[in-house]
Design goal:
1 helix
């Protein structure tokens, strides 16, 4: 297992919107460590599988900061990789 995949994840609150044209929820903002981050760009979204559960992995920019977020589609839970900016 790589160092990147061993980092713990923290649950976050996320604000999303749904569009017919998008194949994934469009992340608008999220709250982490008592701060609200507004997503300026969704740089990449790709799916992963954990058994039967599909995880959507998001790489987003909030101004100059970049974050890696994950959506557990089975539990509808958002998380962020700890140790990211």
């Amino acid at each position: 297992m790589s160092e990147r995949s061993r980092r713990p994840e923290e649950l976050i609150e996320a604000s999303v919107s749904y569009h017919r044209e998008a194949s994934y929820p469009v992340l608008r903002s999220f709250r982490w460590k008592a701060r609200r981050f507004v997503v300026s760009t969704i740089d990449l979204v790709y799916p992963e599988r954990r058994g039967e559960t599909q995880i959507l992995c998001y790489f987003v920019s909030c101004g100059r900061k970049q974050f890696q977020l994950r959506l557990d589609t089975g539990r509808h839970r958002w998380s962020i990789r700890a140790g990211v900016p």
